[in-house]
Amino acid sequence: MTLAFSSGMKVRKFSKYLLSFEIGFFVLLITILYLLGASVVIWGAYSYPSLGSTVLVILLLLSGISIYSIWHLGYRILYIKEHDVLQCKWNWRFIFMGAFISVLSLISNNIPIENEYSEWGSFSIDFNNLVLGLPLFLVAAHIRYEATKC
């Protein structure tokens, strides 16, 4: 009986270490890429305003809130050790919205661009880069797993 409890504690501890590695590596790397890319896109939208750039800035802001939600929930699981992470409904909604945007970007990657020099062609090229957020949802699934094990 104590052997099963001991191995369960080792698995739990390993899972926490793995989650901290995922947050420290994947989420940090994608956050840096997001901040660099979003600053370039927002600067371009400010310099050359159009409907496509406005839509892209809104999608970028929603993606940024999704990344922040992953940081927030990961911090609450790892350092505050709160048990009510599953009750943070708005954070989970923003994470699912970010997942939806990333999946749409993945689908958009497979659609050929007719005129890449048009307004919507440049929108499509910039929108296709949001596919980089897909690995974050492995981290979100791990946070969800940890929240159910608390």
- The geometry reads as elongated
If you compute it from the alpha carbons, what radius of gyration comes out, rounded to the nearest whole angstrom? 19 Å
Number of domains: 1
Alpha-beta classification: mainly alpha
- Element string (H = helix, E = strand): HHHHH
**What kind of assembly state do the chains in view correspond to?**
single chain
**Are there runs of 5+ residues with pLDDT below 50, and where?**
none
Helix content: over 70%
- Structure annotation, total helices: 5
End-to-end separation in angstroms reads 21 Å
The major beta sheet can be summarized as: none
Number of separate strands: 0
Percentage of residues in strands: under 5%
Q: Mean pLDDT, nearest integer?
A: 88
Description:
- The protein is an all-alpha fold.
- The chain has one domain.
- Helices cover 81% and strands 0% of the residues.
- It is elongated.
Kindly summarize this structure in a few lines.
The protein is mostly helical.
Secondary structure layout:
Elements: H1 2-47, H2 51-80, H3 89-109, H4 119-128, H5 136-149
List its traits:
150 residues; mainly alpha
